């Protein structure tokens, strides 16, 4: 019952952000003005900068919103990755509760912001040119081409249409969060701690894998291990770079292809691991 309650509370927190995301998507779908096309087309190239800043806000609602918009083809891959990498979920409130750790918190936010901004811009301006169009994301055509979900009845109002799709993804997130909670309950947090302590210099690589676990569990666990001294700063940062809250769950539900989701997973793990390893070699 505790696991189901926690999963329910985590899912409920996402409802306002998910609704706003689907409301925006519905508005884009139903609008055919050229000014909307120009706005989205012009903003997509530098959207990573905005995404990196939004991602630093301490909650995972923006990661869910970004996943929905990327799955709909509205924002670019670089913007999505900037939001995901900058997201710290529960880590910031937990570190704020420990005043003596505030300098480390400031350093964590600044480094994550820099990584998110650099990764997002490089992906959008360089790397995505080498990828098939379906992986790039971003608005490049007419507003009518943006479609996030199944066909809906035209007579259905924009508010109800957005609510309908919000409730659908809410159920999906709740079921996934509950399954993860049950798995963690069976394995135990102590086993995670013992395993991470034995990984030596490759601790950031394993921490980045832990960060990929959907939901608030990963950021809470990584922060607790860091505060207890089990994780080094470089490993904690690696894990928090790949931790997206419910962002990955939302992406799995809204993405147009499994390959698209796998690409995001590999990028998150690779960027998080590389960042942590480099910081570790630098003695941070």
Please give a structural write-up:
There is one protein chain. Helix 1 (2-30) packs antiparallel against helix 9, helix 3 (47-55) runs parallel beside helix 5 (77-86) and helix 4 runs antiparallel to helix 5. The longest helix is centred in the middle third of the chain and has 30 residues, at 158-187. It is globular, with a radius of gyration of 19 Å. The protein is mainly alpha-helical and 284 residues long. It has 15 helices and no strands. It has helices spanning 2-30, 34-44, 47-55, 61-71, 77-86, 91-96, 102-125, 133-136, 158-187, 189-197, 203-211, 217-227, 233-242, 247-254, 258-281.
Structure in a nutshell:
Helix content is 72%, strand content 0%. It is mainly α and 284 residues long. The radius of gyration is 19 Å and the shape is globular.
């Amino acid at each position: 019952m505790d696991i189901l309650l926690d999963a329910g509370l985590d899912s409920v927190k996402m409802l306002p952000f998910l609704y706003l995301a689907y409301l925006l998507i519905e508005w884009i779908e139903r609008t055919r003005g050229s000014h909307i096309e120009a706005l989205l087309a012009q903003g997509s190239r530098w959207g990573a900068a905005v995404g990196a800043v939004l991602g630093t806000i301490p909650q995972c609602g923006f990661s869910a919103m970004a996943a929905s918009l990327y799955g709909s083809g509205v924002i670019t891959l670089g913007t999505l990755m900037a939001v995901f990498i900058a997201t710290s979920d529960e880590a910031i409130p937990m570190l704020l509760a420990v005043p003596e750790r505030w300098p480390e918190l400031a350093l964590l936010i600044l480094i994550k912001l820099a990584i998110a901004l650099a990764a997002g811009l490089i992906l959008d301006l360089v790397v995505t040119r080498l990828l098939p169009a379906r992986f790039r994301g971003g608005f490049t055509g007419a507003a009518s081409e943006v479609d996030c979900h199944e066909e809906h009845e035209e007579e259905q109002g924009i508010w109800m249409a957005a609510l309908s799709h919000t409730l659908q993804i809410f159920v999906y997130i709740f079921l996934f969060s509950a399954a993860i909670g049950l798995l963690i309950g069976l394995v135990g947090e102590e086993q995670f701690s013992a395993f991470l302590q034995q990984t030596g210099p490759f601790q950031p690589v394993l921490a980045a894998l832990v960060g990929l676990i959907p939901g608030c569990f990963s950021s809470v666990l990584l922060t607790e291990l860091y505060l207890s001294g089990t994780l080094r700063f470089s490993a904690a940062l690696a894990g928090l770079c790949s931790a997206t809250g419910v962002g990955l769950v939302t992406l799995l539900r809204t993405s147009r292809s499994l390959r698209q989701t796998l690409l995001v997973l590999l990028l998150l793990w690779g960027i998080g691991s590389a960042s942590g390893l480099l910081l570790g070699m630098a003695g941070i």
